[in-house]
Amino acid sequence: MEVAIVGGGAAGMTAASRIKALKPEWNVRVFEASSYVSHAPCGIPYAIEFDFPTERLMYYKPEFFVKKRGIDVHLNSKVVKVKRGSLVVNENGEEKEYEWDKILIATGASPRVPPIDGVDLENVFTVDLPPIVDRIKRAVAEAENVVIVGAGYIGVEMAEAFSSIGKKVTLIGKYDYPLPKFDREIGEIVRREVEKRVDYKVEKVVAIEGKDKVERVITDKNEHRADVVILATGVKPNVELAEQIGAELGKSGAIKTNEFMETTVENVYAAGDCAECINLITGKPSWIPLAPTANKMGYVAGVNMSGQRLEFPGVVGSQITKFYDLEIGRTGLTEREAKAEGFNVKSAFIEAHTKVPYYPNPKRVYIKAVKDVDTNRILGAQIVGYEDVAMRVNVFALAIQAGFTTKDVFFSDLVYAPPFTPIWDPVIVTARVLRF
Amino acid sequence: MEVAIVGGGAAGMTAASRIKALKPEWNVRVFEASSYVSHAPCGIPYAIEFDFPTERLMYYKPEFFVKKRGIDVHLNSKVVKVKRGSLVVNENGEEKEYEWDKILIATGASPRVPPIDGVDLENVFTVDLPPIVDRIKRAVAEAENVVIVGAGYIGVEMAEAFSSIGKKVTLIGKYDYPLPKFDREIGEIVRREVEKRVDYKVEKVVAIEGKDKVERVITDKNEHRADVVILATGVKPNVELAEQIGAELGKSGAIKTNEFMETTVENVYAAGDCAECINLITGKPSWIPLAPTANKMGYVAGVNMSGQRLEFPGVVGSQITKFYDLEIGRTGLTEREAKAEGFNVKSAFIEAHTKVPYYPNPKRVYIKAVKDVDTNRILGAQIVGYEDVAMRVNVFALAIQAGFTTKDVFFSDLVYAPPFTPIWDPVIVTARVLRF
User: Fold this and answer.
1) B326 dihedral zone (left: phi>0; alpha: psi -120 to 50; beta)
2) Which of A415, A416, A436 best tests the B interface by mutation, with the highest count of B CBs <10 A?
3) pTM of the predicted model, to two decimals?
């Protein structure tokens, strides 16, 4: 059996590994356009902040997959055409054709580039794959002013990175608070923290200017000096190859899949940031391109491609980031999203401490949670704070996965000891405020 | 309506507050034997370690309950007799009788004292209520050697406290690792950490000796110099008053209650460390005296005493402590307990890091988890590590509460970002190792 895997990121390598574990005799080829496999683009801001070698953003080296797992890894191999039963690859400049019986599209997502002048100037970057890190580091070494366009996760993380290495950072967002996928109560806390370190501007970027190198960013209101510009205005799924072979796309624009990670074309699977999966709260397909989901999709695709059956149940959309000491996470739906989905919503917003009052150094935490009034089910939670945000988002994530009501959460048996939490954990207080 | 609440700890004050919130016109009397209400005995080790004023171990002062919540708080008031419809209190030396229509027994638990000679010597302490703190602090100020008898949670926490303020600590346990309610894989990691700081001895204490003050602890194998001795050999529920009025006890020796916190006697409720509640895994009554459960039992008792109906679903037994930087937690059943309950058990033990490999300063974590082979349900998890143990125990706690299988846990949508966790969270790795 000939298996082709297009893309050597999280989903692709997980699928390849699973197939070789279950079907060691099958021929599994991975085609990866870059020189990295199993890469960690989410680590790019930290490679800049902590200045570690970019190679560390590869979880496993290609040789590991070749030697230990028997996978045929083709690096610098860009798939240019997928046909029924075969594909064409440009391998280090040379076109080759390979046959396949089953294929996995794991082509990931790419940065969106805003349609303005100047995006091609030197020292204007998008945050894509690890090889960009060394170029950014070289450019920023001599830079004084860094302008980041876009205040989503990548924008905020890059703002921390550049600010922490001593650059003057301007972060330009479209909305009056950064991380606009959070509700306002949370976003305003983020904004206050961001403004302690960087210049946050709510402006519309209209052009980027400079001779060869970038010199300034022009907005509807201002002109910002810029030695380096980072474009972080979102990502789009890489669906060209899927479309070539006739796989349908979903409403999100990502590849439509079923719970077995099958596309609408037989023997063609999709997984990772290019593919949709089910949102467990709405029951609808959603596109939330994140690494853990990509890994699990790859795992499920690998199992199913090997002839076993495993369903991917879906996600609740758990996410986290930080800006310096402020941790910011969410799971499920925001109030805005829940209303847009037609739920009859009640929300609660609480402020609490992370420890009993007598234990040294308690930190502040803020929770906004949303329930469905008709069923009392928890629909989502957003948390910002200076400690243990991941813990409490995860508790809500499990609660939402389980379909828990506010009463179930109130009675959840969370750990307590003075060094760890208050006796009434803020999660439980939130459930009580939401009523049951 | 006359309501009597015997005991002003977590359960008693929560119940009293609930009743006054729901029935402001009812007369709610709390009888507390000490001068503290709403106290935090779990903070005693930290009051010694960090030397803060003992009053801080009171969450709210008595005046708060009197003035803000309209509760009639009787301090230094030891209930000596409970009869049908009335009780007798020794209030500051004077006996008084009060009538009640409904009564809550919230008498808590007390330290067990081993049946050996010398337990009454000066500078031999049990760890009971906050007022003990000042006496221990005075005694230990001049002490060089502290011997702790008993290596459960309180023993280990007191060992940290005394060791951190520069005392030479001998911790004497019955079993070959401290915290014997954990399985061996976990206990041995705890033992190694404990032995870095204190002298851990597996010995049987046969006597405590000294002239007036304690001077030494005699065991079956050794004689240990001791200027201060802490007896931490477990606790027992305070059930005498419940027995007086005819309330049945459960197998554990604690007061039998139903899901409304009703005892077997009409209008007599029990809550907190003196009462049993349901273990959600076994479906059987259990006695796990811990503060969050006490609070919730008190809340439920208060609601039901007020004439509304609220069920306490039960607990999964989540617990946590730490010894210096090592965090130690569990939820559900250990392998030993699961086998004793008749489950067909498979267990997994994994070692992992708490962060992606490239992020600075990842810590080690060890997880042991147990599943029921017949249903694939997670039965329990024990975790030790240097970071985020509470987070992962809580994830398992929710999973167990929800009746999740290993597959459900594998697909749980936990947050990920490089500063927080590895892409495959150790919890998810554990579920994969347990198979589904």
Assistant:
1) beta
2) A415
3) 0.98
